[in-house]
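Q: Give me a backbone?
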Amino acid sequence: MIGYVRGIVTHLFKDACYIDVHGVGYRVYVPVTTRQQLIEGNEFTLFTYLNVREDAMQLYGFSTEDEYDLFILLISVSGIGPKVALGILSGMTPEAFKLAVINGQVAQLTKLPGIGKKSAERLVLELKDKLTKMTSISIDSPAAIQPIAVTHGGPSGEAIEALVSLGYAQKDVESLVESLNDGTRDVSALIKASLVELGKGR
């Protein structure tokens, strides 16, 4: 089991990075929250989980132990694999996700990538008690009863904000921008590509 890796970030991708550890380059899949903190050429430590399959070994990394712990909890839920768990962590902060589950906010959870109504209900059923014990925030606190929004980080988030400021509905541009973000486009390119696609739909 690889508990963590510490090395130089040499390449960044949409949902992964290469990290050089004494001359060995590891491809590590990361959530958006971790991806935003990585800078090529800088040394970084990632807490890791090694997923072993018949046809591949995949390494998943996280900038905090809190994210790592939540990832391990997520993949313990039936039907939730590492990639879906990574999508969940990319869509909500750990604290927001915990509160959404504790409060049974199924509608909010279904906004996460790869999560339908049945999966959201299963998350609440299997994790509510565990997360209630883990979190230090009371479910009766004002913060706990507020609707939890799915977040979009990096270039996608900035592009979505820009398009919304131009008058487009957020629900109409979120999935479009995410589908166009292949890891090579910056904010400006994402906005231009989105406007082209939105123009076609008119």
User: Anything to note?
Assistant: Confidence is low (pLDDT under 50) at residues 139-149. Residues 91 and 125 are 20 Å apart (CA to CA).
